Amino acid sequence: MSTRASQARDVLAGADPEQARLMAEQVILVDGKDNVIGRMSKRDAHLVKNDLPLHRAFSVLLFDTEGRMLLQQRADAKVTFPAYWTNTVCSHPLYLPSELGEEDKGDAVFGAKRAAIRKLSHELGVSPGAVTSTDLTFMTRILYRSECSDGVWGERELDYIFLIQKNVPLKPEKNEVQQVRYVTKPELEEMFYEAKTSEKLKMTPWFTIIMERFVWPWWDVILRDGLSRLGELQDQRIHRFTG
C-alpha cells in the first residue's frame, strides 16, 4: 500500500464506514476569487496537515411557512464537528459537470443549487421534486476557516448561502443527522446564548458566522414579507472571515 493511502487509512481509522466512504468524494478547489483550480477528495481537503485547501461549499437555511427555521444536529458519526447543531443542511458541490455549473454556462450558483437539492434528499429525506432550484434563493458567499477540536480535521470553505421557505416532509438519515428541530427566532437566540455559556450545546462555526453577520435581519424580513422582499439584501460579494 502506498504511503499516501496508508496515511489516509490511518486518519480515518475507527471512523464510521459510510462516513469514511463519503470522504472519498471529490470537492471543487477554488482560489480566493472562486475560480475553479482543481479537485481533491473531501478527506484530503479537510485535513489540517494539508493546510485545509479552499473548496466550495453551500449552506441552506429552510424556513417553514410560519417563519420557523429548520435546524439539524449532526450525527455522532460525522468526521467533522460531530453532534454540533447547525443550519438545515450544509455540504459541498462535487467535481461533476452538473455541480460545477458547466451545464448552465458555467453558473456556479446553479451547480451549488443542484448539490443542495441532492443533500436535502440524502440527509433529510426530502423527496425528489419537493424542492426545486427555483425554491432556493441565493443570498451571498462567505469564506471562512475553522479547525475541529481534535486538531486533525477542519474547514476552509467558500460557502454559498441559500434560503428556502417551504413546508416539506422530512425523513432524516440517522447516519447523517441525530435530530432536527424547527425553532423560532427567540428560541434560536436562546440556543446561541447557551452555546456561548456552556459546553452542553455546540454550534458549527459556519452557522455561527452566517447567523451573526447576516441572517438575524434577514429573518425579520422573512417574518414580515416572506422571501419575496429579500432581493435588496442579496449580493455577489465574497465576505471574508479568514485569509
From TrEMBL:
<dbReference type="InterPro" id="IPR011876">
    <property type="entry name" value="IsopentenylPP_isomerase_typ1"/>
</dbReference>
<keyword id="KW-0752">Steroid biosynthesis</keyword>
<keyword id="KW-0444">Lipid biosynthesis</keyword>
<keyword id="KW-0413">Isomerase</keyword>
<dbReference type="GO" id="GO:0009240">
    <property type="term" value="P:isopentenyl diphosphate biosynthetic process"/>
</dbReference>
<comment type="pathway">
    <text>Isoprenoid biosynthesis; dimethylallyl diphosphate biosynthesis; dimethylallyl diphosphate from isopentenyl diphosphate: step 1/1.</text>
</comment>
<keyword id="KW-0460">Magnesium</keyword>
<dbReference type="GO" id="GO:0046872">
    <property type="term" value="F:metal ion binding"/>
</dbReference>
<keyword id="KW-0414">Isoprene biosynthesis</keyword>
<dbReference type="GO" id="GO:0050992">
    <property type="term" value="P:dimethylallyl diphosphate biosynthetic process"/>
</dbReference>
<protein>
    <recommendedName>
        <fullName>isopentenyl-diphosphate Delta-isomerase</fullName>
        <ecNumber>5.3.3.2</ecNumber>
    </recommendedName>
</protein>
<dbReference type="Pfam" id="PF00293">
    <property type="entry name" value="NUDIX"/>
</dbReference>
<keyword id="KW-0479">Metal-binding</keyword>
<dbReference type="GO" id="GO:0005737">
    <property type="term" value="C:cytoplasm"/>
</dbReference>
<feature type="domain" description="Nudix hydrolase">
    <location>
        <begin position="53"/>
        <end position="209"/>
    </location>
</feature>
<dbReference type="InterPro" id="IPR015797">
    <property type="entry name" value="NUDIX_hydrolase-like_dom_sf"/>
</dbReference>
<comment type="similarity">
    <text>Belongs to the IPP isomerase type 1 family.</text>
</comment>
<keyword id="KW-0443">Lipid metabolism</keyword>
<dbReference type="GO" id="GO:0004452">
    <property type="term" value="F:isopentenyl-diphosphate delta-isomerase activity"/>
</dbReference>
<dbReference type="GO" id="GO:0006694">
    <property type="term" value="P:steroid biosynthetic process"/>
</dbReference>
<dbReference type="InterPro" id="IPR000086">
    <property type="entry name" value="NUDIX_hydrolase_dom"/>
</dbReference>
